[in-house]
Amino acid sequence: MKKIFFTFLLLCPISIIVAQNLKMGLYIAPSINSININDVEKGKNKLGFNYGYIVEYAFTETHSIESGFEISKKGGEIDNRNYKSHYLVLPVQVKMKSRAFGYLTYFAKTGPAIGIKLRDNVQSNSSSNNNNYGEAKNLILTLGVSAGAEYSLKQASSLYAEIFIKNGITHAWKDVNNYSYENFLFNQFGLSLGFLF
Questions:
Q1: pLDDT at residue 1 tops 60
Q2: Phi and psi (nearest 5°) for 37?
Q3: What secondary structure letter does DSSP report for 138?
Q4: Is 162 helix (H, G, I), strand (E, B) or coil?
Q5: What average pLDDT does range 121-129 have in this prediction?
Q6: Quick check: 32 and 45 in contact, CB under 8 A?
Q7: Category of 130 on φ-ψ map: left (φ > 0), alpha (ψ -120 to 50) or beta
Q8: Which pTM value belongs to this model?
């Protein structure tokens, strides 16, 4: 019983320190989606929408580790075929912050993310809709880079906005028949708006 009590006493300060350095929040992120197939003329951009939950742990005054989850709509149009897919994205990013300038703090962050496929679909604009165009891969890897600003509110809460670029690293589509690509990478460019508390 004494061992349990002393273990509890030791863990209490650690949990308090972790809680003081921990922030959580929600965000929405409209984006412009594209598919990189090494042929700019064939690819067309499509609008997408992401949203998610964020967890940020500050290990120094100016550096944090950020994670969470995101529901991300990815896709684009190639040769009159509209590729759509939804992924559950699990990012791990390093966030670098400036010193506070009044209520504003500027930041940049980067890191990889794993995408787990939830569903996909291909819609063809041609008259022949019976072709098999393949399907999205179950797992993809992306790399994100973003920069933005955070506005401090009362009680350690804050609002933030950031511009982001998320580029695919791994081939994202299972090729079939005559529809195969040397590269098939999902890319996104957009604006993220969120609230941290």
A1: no
A2: -125, 20
A3: S
A4: strand
A5: 74
A6: yes
A7: alpha
A8: 0.85
